[in-house]
TrEMBL record:
Cofactor list: [4Fe-4S] cluster
InterPro entries for the chain: Elp3/MiaA/NifB-like_rSAM, rSAM, rSAM_horseshoe, rSAM_sf, UPF0313, UPF0313_C, UPF0313_N
Stated name of the protein: Radical SAM core domain-containing protein
Stretch list, region Disordered: 597-632
Domain of life, source organism: Bacteria
Similarity comment: Belongs to the UPF0313 family.
Species: Blautia hydrogenotrophica (strain DSM 10507 / JCM 14656 / S5a33)
Biased composition (Basic residues): 616-632
């Protein structure tokens, strides 16, 4: 019990701590594992000699829940948890979810909506002058003005609404240590305006060196295109090497200023972070509720990398982890795998070795670690950059080493792989070993759509690339004699997807001969390029107009088309086909998606019968007349 960070006054006293240096308030249950951001930041600060206490899921209606450790000596750290609280609470249809995988027993309702705002204000009511630092994905992606899907409006930076002093955005290891050292040195929090990876408020820009002033909040509220222009500037300044200082004007409330991102972690730093003394399980207080459901997904999985140069437009990684790959060493990962074998629950199966994209183990080109990523172009979209270094050798060697760790029977890859990156590698060793050793019957891949128009708005490769990958995947399976399948994930209602494009996807699924069990309707979460398109109706990097399916009914139709074989979707599918002018797909032919309604069938029968009736009637009358004449 004493090996966990304190969660109560009693645990604090057992450690003989008189005053905490930092109190970390989180919307998640306390799981002491490096897959949970709270555990990483707390253990990192502890390793630097600071006393840290954790308040997990406080009762936001009770001020006493935030006072259990008293006032910290240096600051409160606040995070909504591993997920944005609104995404955690609501489906894309804005319906309340039934379970929270990051709460004990999956119980819902243990954190508030817009958690960092609520927690920040709760703390500020009790401690007027104690520094409050926001962090985690919710604060990171809402650090400047952002479109809020749940209120369908532009909201201002959470820094202003929460009463906090600073935001530590991104993954936070570098910035939180620099904040701690500055506060320890006696520098007032209001003077911490120079730290990379932070956002602060100021009344004047005079002391800043060449800031880039974004459109004002009031201007963006009046004109969505102003937000598109602002987003484009932000998007091109997410790199620590050439990112500029960005300032957003809030009128009488001054400016919210974003410093350039922190530098990515080196491999040694990554190894140090993942080698901290985590207990690698949930706090014992959750045992009676059955633990934390999300933990079972990662308990025997290995995080081998961070960041992603894939550049999918619907993903927030560009704004949070960044596009520069950061990796752990083989030794660090093998050491963690060895700890699995000592766990009585381990059955010999490592569930995953990956990250945002499993098969990325190095920056996309050699210049990125010195000069950063290109602000005006992507590494893989629309085609792989000529400078791209597609190389799986390091990943293959890592997987081979993990397979022979004593006690390990099988090493699976369940994180997504970029199939276009696989194709870009001329050496097919990885694909061969993936098929032979690292999947179990099914490979999950994410082509997302089949329309090249939609794929271009997603920032994904054209459909032909996916088809080529399937051919190579099939050949490798034939070599092994295995019958393994690729299970594609598709997304409905993404910006750019008209009803005709949705029908095109349905036809592709028809030809595959299966019905996807899971369909992801596009979810406009904060700070993604696709969300900006959804709100503004334009692509922010080109300012070209984009068709956006927004009406809930239209979105329901597009989703139903992907699962057209489900009888419950029949009416929606029929309506979608008519909207797209594709009534040819309603009928009994082999290419039809749906059968006619009974009413339509009867009407067709009557029309057919009516057309034949005159002939039959005339013939009968003629026969009757003949009989009458014979009798006469």
């Amino acid at each position: 019990m004493s090996k966990f960070l304190p969660m109560s006054r009693q645990e604090m006293e057992e450690r003989k701590i008189e005053q905490m240096d930092f109190v970390y308030v989180t919307g998640d249950a306390y799981v002491d594992h490096p897959s949970f951001g709270a555990a990483i930041i707390c253990r990192l600060l502890e390793s630097r000699g600071y006393q840290v206490g954790v308040i997990a899921q406080p009762d936001w209606k009770d001020p006493d829940s935030i006072r259990i450790f008293g006032e910290p000596r240096l600051a409160f750290l606040v995070s909504a948890g591993n997920m944005d609280s609104m995404v955690n609470h609501y489906t894309v249809a804005k319906k309340r979810r039934r379970q929270d995988a990051y709460s004990p027993g999956g119980k819902m309702g243990l954190r508030p909506d817009r958690a960092v705002i609520v927690y920040g204000n709760l703390i500020r009511r009790s401690y007027k002058h104690t520094p409050i630092i926001l962090g985690g994905i919710e604060a990171s992606l809402r650090r400047l003005a952002h479109y809020d899907y749940w209120e369908n409006k532009l909201r201002r930076s959470v820094l202003l609404d929460s009463g906090a002093d600073l935001i530590s955005y991104g993954m936070g290891e570098h910035s939180v240590v620099e904040i701690a050292e500055a506060l320890e040195a006696g520098i007032p929090v209001k003077d911490l305006t120079y730290l990379p990876g932070t956002v602060f408020r100021t009344d004047s820009l005079e002391s800043l060196e060449n800031p880039c002033v974004l459109p004002s909040y009031s201007e963006m509220q009046k004109e969505p295109l102003a937000y598109a222009r602002s987003f484009a500037v932000q998007y091109r300044n997410t790199d620590p090497f050439h990112g500029r200082i960005l300032a957003e004007d809030y009128g009488t409330q001054g400016y919210v200023v974003q410093n350039p991102p922190s530098l990515p972690l080196t491999q040694l730093e990554m190894d140090d972070v993942y080698g901290l003394p985590y207990q690698r399980t949930w706090h014992p207080r959750y045992d009676k509720e059955g633990g934390i459901p999300a933990f079972s997904e990662i308990k025997f999985s290995l995080t081998s990398n961070r960041g992603c140069f894939g550049g999918c437009n619907f993903c927030a990684l560009t704004f949070h982890q960044g596009r520069i790959l950061q990796t752990r060493s083989h030794e660090s990962l093998i050491e963690e795998a060895a700890t699995f074998t000592r766990d009585p629950d381990f059955k010999g199966y490592i569930h995953d070795v990956g990250g945002p994209t499993a098969n990325f183990r190095q920056p996309s080109c050699e210049k990125q670690l010195k000069k950063g990523v290109c602000p005006q172009r992507q590494c893989l979209f629309p085609k792989p950059c000529p400078n791209l270094k597609a190389d799986h050798r390091d990943y293959v060697q890592l997987l081979r080493k993990l397979r022979v760790v004593p006690g390990v029977k099988k090493v699976f890859i369940r994180s997504g792989i970029r199939f276009d990156y696989v194709l870009a590698d001329k050496d097919k060793t990885f694909l061969s070993e993936l098929v032979r050793h690292h999947i179990s019957g099914q490979l999950r891949v994410a082509p997302e759509h089949v329309s090249d128009i939609v794929l271009s708005y997603m920032g994904k490769p054209c459909h032909q690339v996916y088809e080529k990958f399937l051919l190579e995947y099939s050949r490798e399976n034939e070599k092994t004699g295995k019958k393994q399948y690729a299970v594609p994930y598709f997304m409905s209602s993404h910006p750019g997807c008209t009803m005709r494009e949705a029908v095109k996807l349905a036809e592709y699924i028809r030809d595959l001969g299966f019905m996807p069990e899971q369909v992801q309707d596009f979810y406009p979460t904060p700070s993604t390029l696709s969300t900006c398109m959804y709100y503004t109706g334009v692509h922010p990097l080109t300012m070209e107009k984009v068709y956006v399916p927004k009406a809930p009914h239209e979105k329901a139709i597009q989703r139903a088309l992907i699962q057209f074989r489900n009888p419950a979707n029949a009416e929606l599918v029929r309506e979608g086909l008519k909207m797209a002018g594709r009534e040819d797909l309603i009928g009994y032919g082999p290419k039809c998606l749906i059968r006619p309604k009974k009413e339509e069938k009867r009407a067709a029968s009557k029309a057919t019968a009516g057309a034949e009736k005159p002939k039959k009637t005339g013939k009968r009358k003629t026969i009757r007349n003949i009989h009458k004449k014979k009798k006469a």
